[in-house]
């Protein structure tokens, strides 16, 4: 079966927070943030804007590009670690906003690897029901899970949403997913957490929330594991498909840190001009980062018909993965 990606869309909130703005909030500098991460600015959701609002905007664009009406959808799979609420799922909220009913709606939580986990789930559902039209949408309002007093984390993230529509079909119908590989190692989970709100933490009505409610991580450890696992997974997926580094036209990695991206590119022998990055303008948008990058890479002509695109991701869990998309 061919897993065709018929439409791409992305959305970012209007408000932009620059490094200069952050210098007024925490003890940091544009120089520190830029040299350590490559980030210059990030988008921040409006107070009344939530994950499903942004997912809905990205979904509308992907559906329009695919030429598929919302009511034709059969499944909605939403990747996010910042859902609107515990219940209902954000996928259900996006369905409601699209004005449709009846589809299977499911949230997938794999932190920054959320898009590839959602994409692989979509491939599974498509195998079960080949006539499916599946919306894969990832959306994150990470800013609401930021401790704005912690300079080590709050400078790194931003809010955004990305969406794709997948159907079966002929490879001439559009880009297709060649393969996806996923992995996780729960024993390293405590290196990157958002513990608050989960059942392992007991809260009482009226109790103040603590730092555990926000993203916390051991930056250097995350960095090390990210580079190693993203690189290994790239090698594995190429080997499994009988391909080599030379067959890859473009690398579109999860946008966590420019130095992680550079390190993966170097270890993988991919020159800078074949690596798509938008981290300077978005920061790390977690599960949204890959579909936003894919959508922008297409829009700007960075990726063209005939290109083989390699996508490595890494996130909390730890979770990681790689994908090959033939444009
Ligand atoms: N501004 C100025 N100084 C800062 C800031 C800041 N914003 N943040 C930390 N520092 C200071 C620290 O206090 C520390 O100071 P000290 O040495 O006096 O104690 C020092 O800078 C730390 O500097 P480095 O060790 O050189 O920082 P490093 O090079 O490790 O970079 C960073 C830190 C950017 C966090 C890096 O480790 C990283 O990117 N890690 C990966 C994070 C990541 O990818 N997360 C993605 C997954 S998220 C998800 O899945 C939801």
Automatic annotation (TrEMBL):
**Enzyme Commission numbers on file:** 2.3.1.180
Q: Which UniProt keywords apply?
A: Acyltransferase, Cytoplasm, Fatty acid biosynthesis, Fatty acid metabolism, Lipid biosynthesis, Lipid metabolism, Multifunctional enzyme, Transferase
Q: Which reaction does it catalyse?
A: malonyl-[ACP] + acetyl-CoA + H(+) = 3-oxobutanoyl-[ACP] + CO2 + CoA
Residue ranges of the region described as ACP-binding: 255-259
This molecule's function is given as: Catalyzes the condensation reaction of fatty acid synthesis by the addition to an acyl acceptor of two carbons from malonyl-ACP. Catalyzes the first condensation reaction which initiates fatty acid synthesis and may therefore play a role in governing the total rate of fatty acid production. Possesses both acetoacetyl-ACP synthase and acetyl transacylase activities. Its substrate specificity determines the biosynthesis of branched-chain and/or straight-chain of fatty acids.
Active site residues per record: 112, 254, 284
Q: Where is the Beta-ketoacyl-[acyl-carrier-protein] synthase III N-terminal domain?
A: 106-186
Family as reported in the entry's similarity comment: Belongs to the thiolase-like superfamily. FabH family.
Q: What does the record say about domains? A: The last Arg residue of the ACP-binding site is essential for the weak association between ACP/AcpP and FabH.
Against SUPFAM superfamilies, the record matches this protein to: Thiolase-like
Stored InterPro entries:
ACP_syn_III_C, ACP_syn_III_N, FabH, Thiolase-like
Q: What is this protein called?
A: Beta-ketoacyl-[acyl-carrier-protein] synthase III
List locations, semicolon-separated.
Cytoplasm
Q: Which parts of the sequence belong to the Beta-ketoacyl-[acyl-carrier-protein] synthase III C-terminal domain? A: 238-326
What is the species listed in this Swiss-Prot or TrEMBL entry? Pseudodesulfovibrio sediminis
Q: How does it assemble?
A: Homodimer.
The metabolic or biological pathway listed in the UniProt record of this protein is: Lipid metabolism; fatty acid biosynthesis
């Amino acid at each position: 079966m061919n897993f065709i990606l018929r439409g791409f869309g992305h959305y970012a909130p209007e408000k932009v927070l620059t490094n200069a703005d952050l210098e007024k909030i925490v003890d940091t500098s544009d120089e520190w943030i830029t040299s350590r991460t490559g980030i210059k600015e990030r988008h921040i959701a409006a107070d009344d804007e939530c994950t499903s609002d942004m997912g809905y905007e990205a979904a509308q664009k992907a559906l329009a590009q695919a030429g598929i009406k919302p009511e034709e959808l059969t499944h909605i799979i939403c990747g996010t670690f910042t859902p609107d609420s515990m219940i209902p799922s954000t996928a259900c909220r996006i369905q409601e906003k699209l004005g449709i009913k009846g589809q299977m709606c499911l949230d997938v939580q794999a932190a920054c690897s959320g898009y590839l986990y959602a994409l692989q789930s979509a491939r599974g559902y498509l195998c079960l029901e080949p006539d499916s039209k599946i919306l894969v949408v990832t959306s994150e309002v990470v800013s609401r899970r930021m401790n704005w007093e912690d300079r080590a984390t709050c400078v790194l993230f931003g809010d955004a949403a990305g969406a794709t529509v997948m159907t079966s079909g002929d490879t001439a119908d559009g880009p297709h997913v060649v393969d996806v590989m996923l992995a996780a190692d729960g024993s390293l989970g405590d290196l990157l957490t958002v513990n608050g709100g989960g059942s392992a933490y007991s809260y009482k009505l009226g109790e103040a929330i603590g730092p555990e409610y926000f993203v916390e991580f051991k930056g250097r450890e995350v960095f090390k594991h990210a580079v190693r696992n993203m690189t290994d997974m790239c090698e594995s997926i190429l080997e499994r498909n009988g391909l080599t580094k030379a067959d890859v036209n473009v690398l579109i990695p999860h946008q966590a840190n420019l130095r992680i991206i550079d390190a993966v590119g170097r270890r993988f022998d991919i020159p800078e001009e074949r690596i798509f990055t938008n981290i300077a303008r978005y920061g790390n948008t977690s599960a949204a980062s890959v579909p936003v990058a894919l959508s922008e890479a297409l829009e700007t002509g960075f990726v063209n018909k005939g290109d083989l695109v390699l996508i490595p991701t890494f996130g909390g869990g730890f979770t990681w993965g790689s994908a090959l998309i033939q444009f």
